[in-house]
TrEMBL record, chains A, B, C, D, E, F:
GO terms for biological process: riboflavin biosynthetic process. This is Creatininase. The keyword Glycosyltransferase does not apply. It comes from the Archaea. One of its GO terms (molecular function) is metal ion binding. The lineage of its organism: Archaea, Methanobacteriati, Methanobacteriota, Stenosarchaea group, Halobacteria. Keywords: Hydrolase, Metal-binding, Zinc. Its cofactor is Zn(2+).
């Protein structure tokens, strides 16, 4: 059930305990992909996961602005501080839980949100407000995961499958040429860079041309399956906090 | 320019100083209207205002969850605290301003957000981060404004114009019968109620049947015109802070 | 019972549940009226309301500094941030409630405090710390209310009734000439101004000469009656929070 | 110049750099003395200090509620948290400083405020917002200081001088009999008590009968002189922060 | 039991309710004494106190950075804000209390921490998280206490007893010559200085040469005894919060 | 230069820009290893890194309590909230930077601190207070890194090299038998567990017996080399923040 389209009596009559909350970011994704990429992909994968499930799940609206200060030098990137993001997500999830939707998967489309969402999930779960875990789709697409990048092959091909008009095909080649090979500048397993522009000339990491609509469909399939499996596990899990030793 | 669909070079090449940020809420709107009403209407009116303007304007994604604890007894209503909402909006707007979009209109669809948005606008403007003002569409639709209510004639007819499928026509009569006449319980010009369920049995204030698609189109027209006029004024205004007396 | 003059055994022996907390501001009120206007008037009306009531009421000391950054360009204006003001009022009221005075009316004399006090009242009431509502006296003086302004006819005539020595009669004419007609600069029902000096040359809104001691006495009468009626309603109200739908 | 009674042009024309802000508390002072004791005494001593000075000084309204949780078991005691108190005082003082009154003495009447005020003064001074120091009157009355207590000989006799009607003379004997000899319960120079009721049966420390109006006048004289001397020193002091070593 | 050296089963099998937490500061102590003085001394005295006790006590690791902004002009001084320090200590103590060690003495080595630790102790104790009191060793060494200073005779001689290599004997004479006689610059019982460099040329207060290893041993003895006595009292105390009057 | 042992003139005369701050945690490390493991190892590796460097480096005292709520069910574990930890570390580092040590490596010994330290480093670096990066030693020990666990082969053998007395050799076998194979309970690449006791019976992950003193020495060597290399890179790096695109 899409919460945005439902009325309150619909929600009252719904017997779900599970909810999914897509969490994205509005930030640069190279010269070829839109700033809304992380919202769009998080929503699509949240929906794909819900569709695959036999249980009822409440699907909340996507949270559109995240922890993206790392891209701030690229025009159009929006962000809030990690503190504010944590508060916003935590309180939004807690409000869902008051209605009985207290097992929540945060379906995330942005790497910069990962740490903050894990912290939020722990806080909610330990405080007993809700049991919540973040699911970052590109971590759960099998071997593809190793090629993630930023505005790279995975996101680009998923967009090609979902919203082809939003991918500037005529800039793919240039995007590819100006792309960085990997995320960050590393010495002794420490990333010395804090801003993506320090290592990614045009904001892209990975080759955006190394995919296509078909790969995108496969990613959607893989991530949707993984999310459905996770939702099932979350629904069945004993979420009571353990006793002291 | 819709920020979500744009790429960063598009944004870099855009000469706007103006931005609009739709701000909504995901909350009960009676048995006939969807929880996403305030997001949907805020977005539509933001777009209507931008279209009417000759200047370029950046249109940010909508902020979907607001100050709606007053509806918390109605299933599905989401909310964050006023503190967190203020932080989220303020920081999001400040991030836009770093890119030069530092004259911002917050296009608001929810009464519960009004005070918080005014506070945010003042803070941003006085700190010199951005000049920002909130525009609440239903305050700017001429004589219609006096009939606002909640899930009442204005919101319902605007939805009928925008997304007719989301209005449960078969529940309109019941919605109308169970509706409250006005917002709150007043003694000595003080509203004694803090939660809408204290005075609105089914969450509706005003007669949702007192409108239709045509009225909705008129509202869109009126609000769009008013917003365009406001944007023009914001673009032209001397926003420097005044000197001490 | 005035708390400041009472001893703790007096308070222990008092059977009130009701308390009033005057809330003011120390801020410019034009060339003719003192910076303490909002404290003075809030106190006077709080006392007038209590006197008219047959029940016992605890009357707390006035909170003297409020949300008045809007007047900061005028010398002598004091203020705190809205966050700090909310905390200060909320915690002060919560401390009263620990002694059993848990139905509280915040008697307010300053427009800039209105939104913050409503938020505080909601927080206290929803958290179950106390049931608290703000009463802003100039909203409850019948037809006079429409002429409120700032340092205008209502405040000036009330001061003439309460503390005539504090009104500089010799500056009334000049104050009147330099006054603004209305509060703010409006486009599309949005006030574009954040600081009063943007639209009020001498800090006055409304004609301070359009009143006299007699009008002031009438205002005191009207507001006192309205407050007494409110206190009675607050004492009798079922303040338990409603159930979920 | 009393700020509350002044108009903004009066303040504009005043050449003071110095301000005094009385800071009190509304809290139990035994069965014989009023809850407003600390506000009343702080105001009186602030005024006494200003009168003795040849320079002009701005006198702000008193802050009436402080850090008094230690007296919370006694009916009528009001308090805010130390965090909120610090914010309220600091921001109020910072607002004064924007008008040029940036050398500020916080004239304090309550022991529980001492630590918090010192922290506030340090913060303001180090941040360069204002140079501010707290002055606690009963530390500056010569040999009398050693007898301070709570609701004891010093406060009682000062009240007898200032507002004799507020002292319940008929309860003085009982107050005296139920009084504690000293503040706290000490082991190894550590006070094991956090609440005054742990060691002071009726809330009194020291003998309230060991004074009279005449002693009160002497205290006023001594504290007023000390404050005037302090104000002079504050006015003359080089308040620039020192360089690094 | 030293927590840092213990394993969790050791802790589980320990029947203590008492814990000591050394709290220090890393800050200048003149040209002759190390920046770690306050950590070192707090640890030594914590251990001395525990050794003298027959009950079991858990000894936590020392908190090494405190409220020391007052020494910031002297190279190497580290500090955190009082807010952060209070949070860090309070949460650390609360975590101990979850394991049953809910009677806690904060063994403090730094004057600048005193007020903050008292506030923390009150908060923990009133909230019922733990009963906690701060013990500042140099307040509990009999007549020696009056000579405390900073990097002066007490700290220097205690270091000479504990870690003689860390005292630069060849700089003692110079340290002594450049030392201030007392802490602060006082007018009317108010310290006008906020930074130690305002009154202490080389950061020293009191004569560092007025002691020796033997005096240090005596201080250790005295403070250890006092702490042991305090721990005994804390263990035996009725720490329930008193009722309302 | 060890800050704790240095005097302020020593620090003044030191020409370092680099500082290292060891950051640990006091938390369970299984039945065989001490709660202070993460502090001890972080300090040892910090020192090993500094020794290998030709430049001068300031070595701060270790921060002993971290983000370890995940181990809270195991007796003796101490922790603070992530918010408080971030504040404490950030402000401590900022205080170092005021003395010119504004290139800082946070040498971390605890997995639970990693996300928080990265956030702190970013904040400090973007705000221009200091350039700071976290180095977590067990990420930088070559192929060993994959066997990290908790109280497992790496930490145990490092302790055997550093402080053999603190390893309970007689419990190693039991520790090994009760150990978990991996950290967490994973479904779809999401860890469903928030507390270590959910998956690690005795708090151990990995085989603590799969190492010895010699392996520990190798780890110290590897981590020390990696840290020295990192410090060199930090010293040489252009740490100015990049321009907007």
């Amino acid at each position: 059930m899409h919460l945005s389209a439902a009325t309150w009596p619909d929600v009252r009559d719904c017997e779900a305990e599970l909810a999914v909350v897509p969490v994205g970011s509005t930030e640069q994704h190279g010269p070829h992909a839109p700033l809304g990429t992380d919202v769009l992909t998080a929503e699509a994968i949240a929906d794909a996961g819900c569709e695959r499930l036999e249980r009822e799940v409440v699907r909340a609206p996507a949270i559109p602005i995240g922890v993206a200060e790392e891209h701030r030098q690229f025009p159009g990137t929006m962000w809030v501080s990690a503190d504010t993001f944590r508060d916003y997500v935590r309180e939004a999830v807690a409000s869902l839980a008051t209605h009985g939707f207290d097992r929540v998967v945060l379906v995330n489309g942005h790497g910069g949100n990962v740490d903050a969402l894990r912290e939020v999930g722990a806080r909610l779960s330990r405080d007993g407000d809700a049991y919540a875990v973040p699911f970052t789709w590109f971590d759960a697409v099998g071997d593809h995961s190793s090629e993630m990048g930023h505005g790279g092959p995975l996101e680009t091909s998923l967009l090609q499958a979902l919203e082809p008009d939003l991918v500037r095909e005529d800039r793919l080649e240039a995007a590819s040429e100006g792309a960085a090979d990997g995320w960050g500048e590393w010495v002794s397993h420490v990333n010395l860079a804090y801003d993506s522009t320090e290592f990614a000339e045009n904001g892209v990491v990975g080759d955006p041309a190394a995919g296509d609509e078909k790969r995108g469909e496969e990613l959607l399939e893989l991530a949707g399956d993984a999310l459905a499996q996770l939702l099932e596990a979350v629904a069945e899990r004993d979420v009571s906090r353990p006793d002291r030793r």
